[in-house]
Amino acid sequence: MADYRELWSNLGMDLEKHDVLCAVLPELYGGVYLSQKNRPEGMNYYNFVVSEVHGLRIKELDDHRKAGGKVVGTFCVFVPDELILAAGAIGVGLCGGSQFWIEDGEKVLPRNICPLVKAIVGAKVSGTCPYFQSCDMLTGETTCDGKKKAWEILSEYAPIHVMDLPQMKRDKDYKKWAEEIYDYKAKLEELTGNKITEESLSAAIKLCNRKREALQRLYNARKALNVPISGKDALLISQIAFYDNPERFIEMTNKLCDELESRIKEGVGVTGKNSPRIMITGTPMAIPNWKMHHLIEESGAVVVCEETCTGTRYFEKPVDETQTTMEGMIKALADRYLNINCACFTPNKGREEDIVRLAKEYGADGVIYYNLQFCHTYNIEYRQVEKALKEAGIPIIFIETDYSNDDTGQLQTRIEAFLEMVK
Ligand code: BJ8
């Protein structure tokens, strides 16, 4: 990696602390990713992106800002990327997946809340995340209580706009969400000084749909009997989708998919055809949270799908591209986004249906319900999901964990016992 210290310093980062973070990542990445056998060639691009995670992309954001552009941070898949792009800004997903940020998060938050929220706040207060430091505005949303209250703390550090997400899916909720999208549009126009036009929004909708298509194509390849890519690699690609340049990401992901489709034709897989096929459902896995996939795949199984926000909830269901008026496009955005089935909704029958459908589509032998510690909505929803999967005859196990490695031995034992049972 080139020398970015001047850039980081100009972003007001704590360089000494950041050095500690930079020292941990290569070893972690090497152990989890580079040790894999028979990886597709196309993964070299994503290796490169990770090696430059705090470098090249940050430089691109800096260049954009120097040219008068704005950078907007987001934390949830309900926030429409299309509007950010249509305003000429760059959007970056800021969810934190590293144990490194927990300690700083706990300085300003109670200990007994979700690690994702603690890592988000820790990343900002410690001044060690160059993405956070590059943002001109953050976008929060009213999903779970932990996130909602975290925005109040983050507002002390950076301007933040909070979208009020309805938690039911009645007609009036779709109308309210459309109003929130209009407010967000006005906020982005004020921030960037650019007017969001029918043309710019339509182009952004098409771009985001192309990104969804590329991710769907990647996931489709994982349905093959001889899976051509590991779950770990697919997860990494989803995580990178949240901050990479969208055009470049689409191009490189489609290129990788060409290779994966050839592998399927030639019968080249990453594991044996008899390896247990596992689907993950539950809370998101923000970069560099690879813990669960690593444990599962080290135990000889392959992860074939994630019903999470770093999985299918991010890219399934495109936005209707046929609308030409601003009103029609905002309604299309409201309809697509409010249809995401997050556990913060009540009732949330759609998620049960999605999980059963996806487990069948991807030929999963079993489902691992992944719950980040203290995430109450996903925790409580396990009961209904378990019932739905049992009715469908699909085995399921509940695993609650955090970002630390304290429980890996215990998790490994439980995962191995589950894999024994499903095959
Ligand atoms: S749409 S899952 S990205 S809110 S932060 S809810 S894990 S306690 S991230 Fe989420 Fe949007 Fe829903 Fe997806 Fe639980 Fe933690 Fe809250 Fe979380």
SSE diagram, text form:
Elements: H1 5-10, H2 15-34, H3 43-51, H4 56-66, E1 71-74, H5 81-86, E2 90-93, H6 102-108, H7 115-125, H8 130-134, E3 137-141, H9 145-154, E4 160-163, H10 171-192, H11 198-221, H12 231-241, H13 246-266, E5 277-282, H14 291-298, E6 302-307, H15 312-315, H16 326-338, H17 349-361, E7 366-372, H18 376-391, E8 396-401, H19 408-422
Parallel strand pairs: 1-2, 1-3, 3-4, 5-6, 5-7, 7-8
Helix pairs in contact: 3-12, 6-7, 7-9, 10-16, 11-12, 11-13, 17-18
Note down, in words, how this protein is organized:
The chain has helices at 5-10, 15-34, 43-51, 56-66, 81-86, 102-108, 115-125, 130-134, 145-154, 171-192, 198-221, 231-241, 246-266, 291-298, 312-315, 326-338, 349-361, 376-391, 408-422; strands at 71-74, 90-93, 137-141, 160-163, 277-282, 302-307, 366-372, 396-401. It has 423 residues and is of the alpha/beta class. The chain has one domain (5-422). The strands form two sheets. It has a four-stranded parallel beta sheet with strand order 2-1-3-4, sandwiched between helices. α7 (115-125) runs parallel beside α9 (145-154), α11 runs parallel beside α13 (246-266) and α17 packs across α18. The radius of gyration is 21 Å and the shape is globular. The mean pLDDT is 97. The structure holds Double cubane cluster. Double cubane cluster binds next to α7, α9 and α18.
